[in-house]
Design a protein that fits this description.
The complex is a heterodimer.
Chain A lengths: L1 H17 L7 H16 L6 H22 L3 H43 L1
Chain B lengths: L1 H25 L6 H15 L2 H4 L1 H20 L4 H109 L2 E6 L2 E7 H4 L9 H17 L3 E7 L6 H21 L7 E7 L10 H7 L1 E7 L2
Parallel strand pairs in B: 3-4
Antiparallel strand pairs in B: 1-2, 2-5, 3-5
Helix pairs in contact in B: 1-4, 2-4, 2-5, 4-5, 5-7, 7-8
Classes of the chains: A mainly alpha, B alpha+beta.
């Protein structure tokens, strides 16, 4: 009985070590948070579509942190990857919007110049 | 860039081929919504300017989609499949946005160049217009100056003319004054009247000459000096000096005496600077009496010298 118990504990322990024992994804947290900051600096908060993805990114970082607290590090890793993808999309959308405005502004200036 | 674009396109084709193969391998498994969205987003990205302007990002999106497809192949219902598909969908959209952004940036650069070119053209046009305007103004200024100069010259000429006229007027006035004074003076020894033949100055013979003489008396010379000055100032075309006598004595003697007296007057006037060529002396004797020769008073009036002045 003792040996059986020991065996089970060992097997379980090994199992935990192999499946649920993923390391806390510190690098991914840093990376995701950096992407969020980049999106913020890039003006994502002023662009509705970009802001939505920025919010998703923030929410998912928070969710990932909760998962880490619960020991769900592997799941947290992918949630953080999703957060990073959202933050990057937010930045891309913001930059695209800004470039569109710049081009429109240039076009307006030309129109104004030709109307003078 | 063109090379990168070509490489990107090849990769996309390979990627799509791989995805198709994977789809074929999936068989009847129903893909999660995230994967459906990812595939659609990727397809849109491929058709967007990302193919040309953001091939690297599009390639990243392709790889992400391949990973999602692979996960779907392994385990269609797994959370990993949905996570990877979610990430692939975001990356596909991000690559499309990046492509659009690059295209916008190029459009912006093009528009800015266009703006600068337009501005330069306008500046040149303005410069040209300014030059034209300057030239026009300069021409106008030159014309105005020329006009002013001409006007000034005209004014000056007019002023000179006016001054000349004024001088002439003054001179005439002075001459007239002198003549008037001379005439007034002459009136003491004769008369002045205007007739059709000219201004006739009649000088009494008794004032000019002693009886039977033709030499001028001193007082007569003084008076004739005044007449000479007045006539020179006034100007004259011709003067005829007529000597007249009364009817007493021989006609021949009277004729001779009248001529001699007229010549004496002429000679004196010439000594006063009058032009001899403009003066004619004639002796008319008793032929043109102005009064009766029957009385002493009448005869005295007939003994006379007349200066007939033809004005200029």
């Amino acid at each position: 009985m003792r040996l059986e118990t020991l065996f089970l504990v060992t097997v379980c322990g090994l199992g935990v070590g192999a499946c649920g024992g993923a390391a806390v994804p510190h690098a991914q947290i840093t990376s995701a948070e950096a992407s969020v900051r980049a999106a913020e600096v890039g003006g994502a908060q002023g662009v509705p579509k970009a802001e939505l993805h920025l919010k998703h990114a923030r929410d998912q970082i928070e969710a990932a942190k909760r998962l880490i607290e619960e020991g769900e590090n592997e799941r947290a890793l992918y949630v953080l990857k999703r957060a990073e993808a959202d933050a990057e999309l937010a930045l891309a959308l913001a930059e695209e919007q800004q470039s569109r405005r710049d081009a429109e502004g240039a076009l307006k200036r030309i129109q104004q110049l030709t109307e003078q | 860039m063109a090379q990168n674009s070509s490489i990107g396109s090849i990769r996309q084709l390979l990627g799509l081929g791989g995805i198709t193969v994977l789809l074929g391998a999936c068989g009847a498994a129903i893909p999660p919504q995230e994967l459906v969205d990812a595939r659609a987003a990727y397809q849109q990205a491929v058709e967007s300017p990302a193919s040309e302007w953001a091939p690297a990002k599009l390639d990243t999106a392709r790889q992400s989609l391949e990973e999602a497809e692979a996960a779907f192949e392994d385990d269609p219902d797994s959370e990993l499949t949905r996570d990877l598909a979610y990430i692939a969908e975001r990356r596909a959209r991000a690559s499309a946005a990046a492509g659009q952004r690059e295209q916008n940036k190029r459009r912006l650069a093009q528009l800015e160049a266009e703006y600068q070119e337009l501005e330069r053209k306008q500046a040149n046009m303005t410069k040209e217009e300014l030059e034209k305007m300057r030239a026009r103004l300069e021409e106008e200024r030159r014309r105005a100056a020329a006009g002013e100069q001409a006007l000034a010259q005209k004014d000056e000429a007019l002023a000179q003319k006016e001054a000349e006229i004024e001088r002439e007027r003054e001179a005439r006035k002075a001459a007239e004054g002198k003549l008037s004074a001379a005439i007034a003076s002459l009136k003491e020894m004769g008369s002045v009247k205007e007739e059709s033949r000219g201004v006739v100055i009649t000088l009494s013979g008794s004032v000019l000459f002693a009886t039977g003489e033709y030499n001028l008396l001193p007082i007569a010379k003084e008076k004739l000096n005044e007449v000479a000055t007045a006539l020179k100032d006034q100007g004259y075309k011709k003067i005829v000096i007529e000597g007249h006598t009364d009817s007493r004595g021989s006609a021949a003697k009277n004729q001779e005496l009248s001529l001699q007296r007229a010549q004496s007057v002429k000679a004196h006037l010439v000594t006063q600077g009058m032009d001899a060529s403009k003066i004619e002396a004639v002796g008319l004797g008793p032929d043109r009496p102005v009064a009766t020769n029957d009385t002493a008073e009448g005869r005295a009036m007939n003994r006379r010298v007349e200066l007939v002045v033809e004005p200029e």
